[in-house]
Design a protein that fits this description.
About 0% of the residues lie in helices and about 50% in strands. It is globular and about 40 Å long. It has no helices and 11 strands. It is mainly beta and about 120 residues long. Strands 2, 4, 5, 6, 9, 10 and 11 form a 7-stranded mixed beta sheet that branches.
């Protein structure tokens, strides 16, 4: 059974930092591209950041949504089957539910989601 369990969300003031973690089980973690997505009320889910698996030719690579470039950093610890999202200089518009995703390829067969963790940026 595949499980993705997010942690680290909460309430933070503008300009502050949070570190999210997503612990995976039931998958061969190294093979999966891991991603963080977010969804704010009334908005579509959007990509925050993703990181490819170590099995990808050329090694791991990262991708970021335009709104978080330079502020957020995604990383993974393959020994712990965990992916992280370091979020700095948080803004009120970063408020959303953040979801962890594990995926191989474009289809739905190897595409898994966590239940999400709430991040609220407010003074």
């Amino acid at each position: 059974q595949v499980q993705l369990v997010e942690s680290g969300g909460g309430l933070v003031q503008p300009g502050g930092s949070l570190r999210l973690a997503c612990a995976a089980s039931g998958i061969t973690f190294n093979f999966y591209t891991m991603g963080w997505y977010r969804q704010a009320p009334g908005k579509q889910r959007e990509l925050v950041a993703s990181i490819t698996g170590a099995s990808v030719a050329g090694g791991e690579s990262t991708n970021y949504g335009d709104s978080v470039k330079g502020r957020f950093t995604i990383s993974r610890d393959n020994a712990k089957d965990t992916v992280y999202l370091q979020m700095n200089t948080l803004k009120p518009e970063d408020t959303a539910v953040y979801y962890c995703n594990a995926k191989i390829g474009p289809g739905p067969r190897y595409d898994y989601w966590g239940r999400g963790t709430q991040v609220t940026v407010s003074s």
